[in-house]
Amino acid sequence: MPLSSTLLENAVDQLATLPGIGRRSAMRLALDLLRRDAGAVHRFADAIRRMRDEIQYCNVCCNISDRPVCEICSAHDRDKGLICVVEDISAVVAIENTHQFKGLYHVLGGVISPMDGVGPEDLHIARLLERVAEGGVKEVVLALSATLEGDTTSFFLNKRLSERDVPVTVIARGISIGGDLEHVDELTLGRSIMDRKPYEQAVRR
Amino acid sequence: MPLSSTLLENAVDQLATLPGIGRRSAMRLALDLLRRDAGAVHRFADAIRRMRDEIQYCNVCCNISDRPVCEICSAHDRDKGLICVVEDISAVVAIENTHQFKGLYHVLGGVISPMDGVGPEDLHIARLLERVAEGGVKEVVLALSATLEGDTTSFFLNKRLSERDVPVTVIARGISIGGDLEHVDELTLGRSIMDRKPYEQAVRR
């Protein structure tokens, strides 16, 4: 049955575009929003709009940041010779929560995925190579999801980084194969950072 | 760990106010929105804002509607003597999908819930009594949730409607069609035994 209001219909359609939200859930969310006062709904819509319009990225690590150089990259007590390569900010948050890593990050903005039309040129790989070329980097730790796309990206990065004579390590496969990084528990993720291995050792059968 | 961006933080906070969405899911939704182009995110935010600002309600049944009198209330082939009382539009959609009801609706906008500070005066009950007072109503069907709040509301409505001499019925409670008997809760099963019907009546149609 079509809904009795195109305004409601549109809102439900839009909410249903969110990952993991079906039309039934979208309807529930829309009705919940309808019950709130107008000011609260404006704050909701504006927070999303402003995030998309005004968000900035750190000039060094490409992470989402409100400053030109993010807090982690400008901290004095972190090891600037150690760079941990991750997919997105949720991986940074997850790794920070383990308290096992005191280096800097590099946020790729995704992984290589031909199926989704994401190639190496769509990721912040050039900036990573630049950071290595600037010198002082003693180790690059690859901390990508243990998926086909993550492994492909790690393979590609190791190849490019090896040409630049920088040791490349991979976080230990304590994390479950096929799992998304954001769903790994902190203990396993922390252990996998402690147990990282040289790339050549990590990928041998 | 606090996020590196207050813009992202705000968006995640707002998304986490939605029912059933925790902070982790909210982060996933925010990152998904961030990956879309600006136009798509504007359409998303605007659909929600416009729904809240411009939505209207049917003057007769109080359902969400783009017209002063909704499609169902203005239809010529529906029984105007039969009013089904429901909580919200999602119940209307669910009942319409059964194709078993050809009367009109009355949308209360919720149920009486002292815990949430919702009293009878917060619901569209006065308008329901008005409709009955206008005459021509042969039966009011109460189709509220089988919860403490739903039952309280049904009790209250039956009392007020009985004073107006209109027959009040309640939708049947019992085991669900196609359900295993061993998975039915005791209350429902007990109720379905008390409300048993002659076989010939139960299997008709």
Describe the structure.
The structure is a homodimer of 205-residue chains. With 205 residues, chain A is α/β, with parallel strands linked by helices. Chain A folds into two domains: 6-54, Helicase, Ruva Protein, domain 3, CATH 1.10.8; 57-203, Dna Topoisomerase Vi A Subunit, Chain: A, domain 2. Chain A contains eight helices and seven strands; from the N terminus they run αααβββαβαβαβαβα. The longest helix of chain A is centred in the first third of the chain and has 17 residues, at 38-54. The first copy, chain A, is elongated. Chains A and B meet through α1, α2, α3, β2 and α4 of A and α1, α2, α3, β2 and α4 of B.
CATH architecture verdict of the largest domain in chain A: 3-Layer(aba) Sandwich
Going across the biggest sheet of chain A, name each strand in turn: 4-3-5-6-7
Number of domains of chain A: 2
- Top-tier CATH class of the largest domain in chain A: Alpha Beta
Q: How many strands in all of chain A?
A: 7
Largest interface: A-B, 60 and 61 residues
- Alpha plus pi helix count of chain A: 8
Low-confidence stretches of chain A: none
Q: What order do the SSEs of chain A take from the amino end to the carboxyl end, as H and E? A: HHHEEEHEHEHEHEH
Overall helicity of chain A: 40-55%
> What name does the CATH topology of the largest domain in chain A carry?
Dna Topoisomerase Vi A Subunit, Chain: A, domain 2
